Amino acid sequence: MSTTTTKDVARPAGPGASPVRPRRGPRALLGSRTFNFWLFTGPFLIGLLVFVYIPIGWSVWLSFFEARFTVTPEKFTGFDNYRQILRNGNFTGALVTFTVFAAFIVPTTWAVSLGLALLVNRLRFLRAFFRSVFFLPTACSYVAASLIWKMSLFNGVRFGLANTVLGWFGVENIAWLADPDPPWYWLVIVTARLWLQSGFYMILFLAALQNIPQELYEAAAIDGAKRGWQTFRYITLPQLRATSTAVILLLLVAAYQAFDEFFNLLSRTTWGRPPLVELYYTALGQNQDYGAGSAGAVLLTLLICVVTLFQGKILGFGRGEESK
Amino acid sequence: MPAPNSSTWNRRSLLRAALGVTAGGALAACGSNNGRAGGGSGKGLVQYFHAYGEPGTEQAIRRYAKAYQGANVTTQWITGADFESKLFATLLTDNAPDLFEFHPQIQLVKSGQVADLTDIVAPVKDDFNAADIASHTVDGKIYGVRMLDDPQFFFYRKSMLEKAGVGVPQTLDELIEAAAKLTTGKVKGLFLGNDLHAVINPLIWSAGADTLDDNNRIAYHTDGVVEGLKKMRTLFTSGSLLLGAPADYWDPSAISQGLTAIQFCGMWAMPQLQQALGDDLGVFPFPKVTDAGKPSVYNGGWSMFVNAKGKNVDAAKEYVKWLWIDQKRYQEDWALSYGFHIPPRTSIAASAGKLKSGLAAEGVKLFNDFGHFDRIGWTQAMIKATEDVFADCVRKGGDPEAALDRCDKAVNTELKKLFG
C-alpha cells in the first residue's frame, strides 16, 4: 500500500523516466510516445473491451429482449424485464441482504485484521512465521473453504465440530444452515469470509504500521502520552487513515462481489442471497432468463456507479493531495 | 440494438470464441479426452450425465459408449449438485453436448432444444411403460427415451420402530408423531433431505392435489396443500427432523450411519442399504396428508435427449437408438447392476429377477400402486417456484397462502409463456 511519503518520491520521477524525445527515422516509431502508449496499454485495452465493455453492452441489449435459453434473442419487450425484476421483490431483497452482510463483514474484518497486524507488529521473535500463518488462508479457495465450513465445521449432525463443542456444554445440536430461524447462517458465512480474508488485510496494515515514523512515538512519550490506548488513539490510528480508507473500500468491493460462499453454503433458499447470487439464479440457474438477469445486472451496475461516486465524495479516496 | 449487422456478428463470434476458449481450457484441465471430438476418423459425440451415486455407474456408461462402433462417444460426468445449471449453460455454447440426460420438460421442446425422437421410439413404443411414453410426448411427437424409472419413498429401520412402539405411519400426522417418538439423544426420527425439496411433489399429491391439471392450469393451490404445509412447518420446528446432514436425501448414508430412523430416499439406494442394514429395513410411501388424500410415490427417473441444435443430430440419434432402444443387455445392466431402478421397457422389467422378491418387490408395488410420473408441462421454473414455497413457509415460517400466491404468479407467468 502506497503511503503519502512514497507518493511524493514517485511523482517527480514520472516525467523524467522517459528521456527519449520523438525523432524522425526508422527507429522513430520505438521512440514515439504515442506508439509506446499504445504498445503498453493496447493489450490491456483489448482485454477490457472484449471482457468488460462488450459484455456490458451486450447485457444492456439483452435486457430489452425476451431472452430465455438464448443470448441472441429476437423478441423486443421494452422495459418488461426491468418491471419484472423490480416487482418480484427478490432483487430488492438481495440488496437488503447485501447491506446486512456488508454491515457485518466490513467492520469485523477491519477490526480483526488491524488487531492481528498490531499483535504481529509487536512480536520480537517469529514475526515472519506468524505473518505467514495468518496470511495463508488467503490462498485458500472460497469454494473449498465453504465446503469445509458446511460439511465438517458447521454441519447439523452431532459429529460436526461446532455441535461437538456445544455438546460438551449440553447444548442441543443446531442446524446451522438448514434452519433460517434464528439466522445462524450469518455466523457461518461471516466466519468463513473472516478467516479467508483477514490475513490479506493484516499484511496491508502491517506495512502501514511499519511506515509510521518512530519519532512520532518518541515525541509523544516525551510529551507524556501513555503507551497503549492513548498513543494508539492519537498516533497510530490517524497515521493509518489512508490505509484504513483503502481497506474499507476494498472490503466493500469484495462484499459486493460475494458469491461463492453464499452459493455453496445456502443452496436453494429464498433468504441470504446477495445481488450476484440472485442474478445468477435468474440468468444462469434453472430459469436461464438472460433478459431479466441482464436487466438486474444493469440496475446493479448503475447502483455501484452511484455508490462509488458517493463514496469518493465522502471518503475523498482518489482525490489528489492538493485538494485536501 | 441499432448496430450494423456485421458488428453484431463480430460481437457474437468474439464471445463465442471466448466461451469456447474458456470451456476448452476447463475440459483440458479435467484431463478428459475431448480432443478427439469432431475431427479424425468417424464422428465424435459428447454426452452429459449427472454423477450417479452408486459405484460402477460411470464405468458402465463409458463401457457402453466404447462398445459402440458408429461414433466416438465421449462422456462428461458432471459432479456437483446443480447439474441443471451446468447443462443449460453449456447448451447455449458451441461446446454443447450432442446428447444429454434430463427429465421431460416442455420448455426444451418449445425452444427447439431437444430433437424429435418419434422415428426411433415409435417401433418399440408398446414395449415401454405407457406412462413413460406419455410423459415424453408433446402433440403426438416423442422427445426423449426413458432409461430409468426411480420411485422415491421412505426407508425405515424396523428395529427402531419396534423399540419405540411405533407402527408404519399411515398419515402425515402419524409420521410427525413417529418422528418425535423415534428421536433420542443420538438419533433423529426422520430425514427428508437438507432442504426438504424432495417431498414437495409427494406432499401435493398426498393432499389430493396435483401440480397442474390436464389443461395445464394450476392444481396445487388447495386447502389440503395449505394444511400439509402447516403440518410440515410443525415437523420442521419439532426438533425430530435431521437437518444439515453432510449428504443429502439421495444418499443413503444418513440412515445407514444411524443418524436417523426413517429417511426419504429412492429405490436406487436399496442395494447399498440392504448391504449396510440387512433385513432391518422397510419401505413405505409418502402418507396421506388429509382424509381426502392418498399415499403417493414420485416416479422420477432419467431420460436421454438429443440436442437438436447440435452439429451431429443424426449421429446422436443413431447412438440413442443403438444403446437405449436396441441394446437390451446394456439397458438391463444399467437398471439393475448398480442401484435398483425400474426398467422402463416392460419386457426387461418382466424378466428382472432382482425386482421380483423381498424389499425390491415391495418397492415395485409402491411404484405401481401410488406412483406419479413426471408431467412434461411442469418445468424447472415451476419446480423452482414450489421450492421457494417450501423455503418460505416450511423452513422460514411464513404464511402458506401468501407463499402459494407468489408461487401462482411465477407459475402463471411461465404457463403463459409456454401455452399462451
Automatic annotation (TrEMBL), chain B:
Keywords: Signal. The keyword Signal applies. Residues 1-28 form the signal peptide. Coiled coil: none annotated. InterPro entries: Bact_solute-bd_prot1, SBP, TAT_signal. CDD domains: PBP2_TMBP_like. This is Sugar ABC transporter substrate-binding protein.
